[in-house]
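This section describes the prediction task in plain terms. A model, or a person checking by hand, is given the sequence of a single protein chain and must write out its three-dimensional structure as a string of tokens. No templates, partner chains or ligands are provided. The sample shown here is typical of the held-out split.
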Amino acid sequence: MAATIEQIGGWTIRVEPELGARVATLRGPSGREWLWRRSEASRGRASATPGGAFVDAGGWEECFPTIAGASDHGEVWSRPWAPVGAGNALTASGRDFRLMRSFRSDRGGLAACYRLEAAPGFRFVWAAHMLLDVSETGRLVAEPGTTSRVWPDHWRSAEPVPVVEGPWPAPLGAPLDGLASDASALFFMLLEPGPVTVADGAHLTLRLRAEGQPAAIAIWRNLGGWPEASPYRSIGVEPAIG
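The expected answer:
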């Protein structure tokens, strides 16, 4: 199925069903493109196959039913999704689950709606792996005091990494809301958060509604620290449950 372009409530999205239902364009009513792209990885992303290593090409990928683990960034990002019905819904199936996603307008914003079909008690982790094009002066804005769970240097070690918790915006002592490149890379989660906003001239606000589920917004704050051999800059703001 070829890539599709949808106009929904003033938003423009380009979806690539054959590439894991990847969202390649997320353009707001002002015309601002919010998604970051890493063009040098595009060929590897196009040839990715289930079970292979994740290809960090940018855009908005779906991570399910895991993020880390045996299937790097999950199983569904690397397989084609199929259309459901006459709307924009797409679905991916695994051995013991079926995941569906559709988009609709929501009070001037854009809502991504998900449905999971699986046996009761099915355990999973999901994240919308959304890499954003944010300038050096951009900031992350969340409710002060929100509990932040940090895995310092998690990408440097194959062993379990100590977990540190503290209040936003400075769970480690120094504030983490700025996005100026400082050769660092850090992964953390804002637990049970309210809205999280990326402020960079324009504003992109993310809200997650998942009643009855443990919810977070994960942040991959790579300010030129990863990978060590050839670092680049990428900012991930990733609603997550599970």
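For orientation: The longest strand covers residues 215-226.
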